[in-house]
Amino acid sequence: DAGITQSPRYKITETGRQVTLMCHQTWSHSYMFWYRQDLGHGLRLIYYSAAADITDKGEVPDGYVVSRSKTENFPLTLESATRSQTSVYFCASSVGGERSPLHFGNGTRLTVT
Amino acid sequence: GQQVMQIPQYQHVQEGEDFTTYCNSSTTLSNIQWYKQRPGGHPVFLIQLVKSGEVKKQKRLTFQFGEAKKNSSLHITATQTTDVGTYFCAGPSTGNQFYFGTGTSLTVIP
What we know:
Shape of chain A: globular
Oligomer: heterodimer
Number of helices of chain B: 0
Largest sheet of chain A: 7 strands, mixed
Number of strands of chain B: 11
Number of helices of chain A: 0
Largest sheet of chain B: 6 strands, mixed
Structural class of chain B: mainly beta
Strand content of chain A: over 45%
Mean pLDDT of chain B: 93
Low-confidence stretches of chain B: none
Number of strands of chain A: 11
Low-confidence stretches of chain A: none
Distance between the termini of chain A: 30 Å
Shape of chain B: globular
Distance between the termini of chain B: 41 Å
Structural class of chain A: mainly beta
Largest interface: A-B, 29 and 26 residues
């Protein structure tokens, strides 16, 4: 969907480096989510946010930090990247409420060497 | 915690054959959503089921929600090469979190 943009599309970084993945949505959706996708594990929730300045942990939050100072942005930071964080990362947004569908960005493929 | 399991993990079918993927939750779900992810793409919302025993159709796709609201299925009749991709179910948890199943990857052989 054009309304949610992730950058970069591809990133290669070294172990121990800090890296930030960006997510921007133009719908003014309240909720935003970060998922990682790995073979055999499907999509696993890392962090989510119900509104600006409100964030909460998902299934696999260790090693990640998020912030949401503005409704439209929800960056994900790997403070000290590890090889196990090599994955495809998807940002998603929704209006909110458990019956709201998620709208996903195109993903960021991150490789940690 | 909540777990959503999907089977099978992979399915290869000849074009024209039917395909079914099953989703099972360890807890009762208020609703279930289905998504499709084309190879190299991102998940795209297909449909949501809310009521116990609900059945919905989208052309050749039939979605069912179990009576106990703990399982669901997606059935594709007469598969086409355009059906290739990974199909995910997802159920809500507390705080509007969505837990996704492990997905079923469908390959259609022409």
